[in-house]
Structure formats: structure tokens, C-alpha cells
Write a structure and sequence with these properties.
Layout lengths: L1 H27 L1 H16 L12 H20 L1 H11 L4 H19 L1 H18 L6 H15 L8 H9 L4 H26 L20 H18 L5 H15 L1 H5 L3 H18 L2 H26 L1 H8 L6 H10 L9 H16 L11 H25 L3
Helix pairs in contact: 2-13, 3-8, 3-10, 3-11, 4-5, 5-6, 5-7, 5-9, 6-7, 6-17, 7-9, 7-17, 7-18, 8-15, 9-16, 9-18, 10-11, 13-15, 14-15, 14-16, 15-16
């Protein structure tokens, strides 16, 4: 009987672990599952045929792979930790450290994509602030880091995934891209700085400790090698060298130098993009829907792209709407500032929410404290994101976008 009970208990334990694993997968890859489901639904309306071969933008996927892989290589080398420490050590008060964390996140998002910048900086920020005795500032720091990643990364083609796609899809000139994004970027940066200052008003206390960030020396040879890979990736993004050739070089070098960087690539994000391509390609072949989206983009491309981003997120909105307009400027601006607003507006926003919820698990002493109440955080997050979106929309509309 005892053995039977042990066997039953073991099976129940295995079942509970399996359920927990499924829940974790669903929580961590919700966007992928939604994208796959959306693609599958459209496949019922447009059965697979030869037209599917033209859906996927392989240049975008190749560039995104290179950016993610090289950024991971720098992360494992400790370059991002060193950059963060240099930024933080120049300041001595809680307010200035939060500002440094937010601005560092914004700068990293320009080169490492907004998602990866947050994955790197949010755990670092939580550790720094909690270890320094400033746990109350984790929530405002996370909110502003999410806005900085979403809005500061817009200024470069490889700052946000949707930028990589649109830059490739429309074969944009770098000068045109920069001129179009200059105004929303400058205004976004000003809003991020102003918002951070407002949320940290009166936070001028000294740290209890600043031992949270690594001081390990950087390997110069790898730093040089990874810098060359980054330069090659930039050349691929700007269509100066073939993407496939750069991807092979990145793959070969990192397979030899640091395979962890390849293993850590966000492959679910790449698969999500592939699903978005199938979804958008099929939607473009539905005449009744195509006519509606085309008329909306013709009437007000900026507002349509912002509105759709709030419902299905800015990356799929960019992929879908690009099939229905040749006016790339309002679409580009719309899906970038549309990353603010609702938590659904950008995958980066979901990353912020997920990381905030995980902080009390890492630091159990913070569980149940008012500063880490999920509802309170979501309220602050939503109010600021919607406020930023409204200001950016009004400003861009006033300037004729």
C-alpha cells in the first residue's frame, strides 16, 4: 500500500510539474502562441499554396538574428554590465542612478533592440536599486525604462524589430529614415527625461551599497571580434553587404567564440515574426479586409497604425499594414509611438510587466509590500504610457505627419 501511495504521489507530482511547465511556457511565449494561432486561423481562409513562399522577409529575419546574437555575445562578455556600471558610478543619489539606468536602457535599445535592452537592464536595475536600499524606486524605474526602450530605439533601423522590417520592406534610405524619426525621437527623449525626473522628485538619498554590478575585466580580443561583427551587422542592415553572408560569419564566429550567445538568441521571436508574415500575407489576400485597411491607411495612416498597434501590437501591425500603403512615413512613426499606450502595444511592455512581477520572487523580503503591488504598477504603467502616446500623437499630427 505504501508503495502504491508513493507511486500515486509521484505521478501527481509529475503531473503538477508538467502543468507548471505548460503555464510557464504560455506565460513566457504568449505573443508567439497568439501569432501562431492568428496565422493558423488565416490559413483556414487562405489554404497553403505557392504564394506562401513570398510571405517571409528573410532579410529582416537574418538581420534580427545577427543583432540578437551579437548583442548576446556582448552581454556574456560583460560589456553591457560594464557600460551600466560606468553610467551608474558617475552619480551618487537615488534620483541620478535611476536616471542613469533609464538613459542606459534607451541607448542600448538603439543598438540591441528594445526587447534585448530590457532583458539586459531590468534585472540589473532591480538588483542595483534593491541592494542600494531603494526598492521603492523599482516600479518608476521599470516604467520609465519600458518607455525609454520603446521610444528611444525608434531613431535607428535596428532599434526596434518593426523598424528592421519596414526599413527592409520599403528599401528606405538611411537619411530619409533619420529625418522622419528625428522629431518623435527628440520629443520622446525629452518626455522620458521629464517623466523620470517627475517620478523621482525628492529621491536624493545615498546608496547603502553599489556592489551589484560586475567589475570583471573585458577580454580585449573578443571585444574587438564582437565589435567587428556588430559593424558587419550594421552593413547588412543598411544593405551594403548580403545579409546571408553576415549571418554565416556571425554563426561561425560565435560557434567558436561563445556558443552561449547563439543558444540565447530569442528564437521564439524569430518564429513569431514568421507567423506574423504568414498572418499578414494571408490577410492581404482577403479582398474584403484589404479594401478596408487600404482605405483606413489612405484616410489617416498615422492614426490607423497607432490604433491597430494598441490591439495586435506594433510589430504585427507594421507587417500587416505595409501591404496596404505606399506611404511609409506615417506607418513608421505610427507603429513606433504606438508601442506606448496599452500594454499590448509592444512586446517590450509585456517584458516590463513580467519582470516586475518576478522581482519579489528574487527578493522574497519584498513580497506583499505596497511598492510591489501588481495593480498599482499596472495603473502607473498605463497612465504614463497613454499620456506619452497622446502627447506624441498630437505633436506629430501638428507637424503634418
Amino acid at each position: 500500500m505504501g508503495n502504491l501511495l508513493v507511486g500515486i504521489s509521484g505521478k501527481e507530482g509529475a503531473g503538477a510539474r508538467a502543468v507548471a511547465s505548460v503555464r510557464t511556457f504560455v506565460r513566457e511565449h504568449a505573443v508567439l502562441l497568439i501569432a501562431a494561432a492568428a496565422a493558423a486561423v488565416t490559413m483556414l481562409v487562405v489554404p497553403p499554396d505557392g504564394g506562401y513562399l513570398g510571405y517571409v522577409d528573410w532579410n529582416t529575419l537574418g538581420c534580427l538574428f545577427c543583432v540578437l546574437a551579437v548583442a548576446n555575445a556582448f552581454r556574456y562578455l560583460g560589456a553591457f554590465d560594464r557600460l551600466a556600471r560606468l553610467a551608474i558610478e558617475r552619480f551618487s543619489t537615488s534620483r541620478s542612478v535611476v536616471m542613469a539606468l533609464v538613459l542606459t536602457t534607451g541607448v542600448l535599445s538603439m543598438a540591441a533592440t528594445n526587447d534585448l535592452a530590457l532583458i539586459i537592464m531590468l534585472p540589473l536595475s532591480a538588483t542595483v536599486l534593491v541592494k542600494a536600499g531603494w526598492a521603492r524606486l523599482v516600479a518608476p524605474a521599470f516604467v520609465m525604462q519600458g518607455l525609454a526602450a520603446n521610444l528611444c530605439g525608434m531613431v535607428l533601423p535596428f532599434g526596434n524589430p518593426q523598424n528592421l522590417y519596414l526599413y527592409s520592406y520599403y528599401a528606405l534610405d538611411l537619411g530619409d529614415f533619420l529625418r522622419t524619426m528625428a522629431l518623435p525621437f527628440v520629443l520622446s527623449a525629452a518626455l522620458v527625461v521629464s517623466g523620470t525626473l517627475a517620478l523621482t522628485r525628492g529621491a536624493d538619498d545615498k546608496p547603502a551599497s553599489m556592489e551589484a554590478v560586475s567589475r570583471l575585466p573585458l577580454g580585449r580580443r573578443r571585444l574587438l571580434a564582437y565589435s567587428l561583427l556588430l559593424a558587419l551587422t550594421a552593413l547588412a542592415v543598411f544593405r551594403i553587404v548580403p545579409v546571408w553572408a553576415v549571418a554565416l560569419v556571425v554563426l561561425a564566429v560565435l560557434a567558436y567564440a561563445d556558443r552561449r550567445a547563439l543558444k540565447a538568441v530569442d528564437y521564439p521571436l524569430l518564429i513569431t515574426f514568421a507567423c506574423f508574415f504568414v498572418f499578414a500575407g494571408n490577410m492581404a489576400r482577403m479582398p474584403f479586409l484589404g479594401g478596408t485597411l487600404a482605405s483606413l491607411m489612405a484616410a489617416d495612416g498615422l492614426l490607423a497604425s497607432i490604433a491597430l498597434s494598441q490591439v495586435i501590437s506594433n510589430v504585427p501591425a507594421a507587417v500587416l499594414l505595409s501591404h496596404f500603403t505606399g506611404q511609409w512615413a506615417p506607418l513608421l512613426v505610427g507603429v513606433n509611438i504606438g508601442g506606448a499606450g496599452t500594454p499590448v502595444g509592444s512586446l517590450a511592455s509585456l517584458i516590463v510587466l513580467q519582470h516586475f512581477i518576478s522581482v519579489p520572487r528574487v527578493f522574497p523580503a519584498l513580497r506583499g509590500t505596497p511598492d510591489f503591488a501588481a495593480g498599482r504598477f499596472v495603473g502607473l504603467f498605463t497612465v504614463l504610457n497613454v499620456g506619452f502616446l497622446v502627447v506624441l500623437f498630437v505633436a506629430c499630427r501638428a507637424c503634418g505627419l
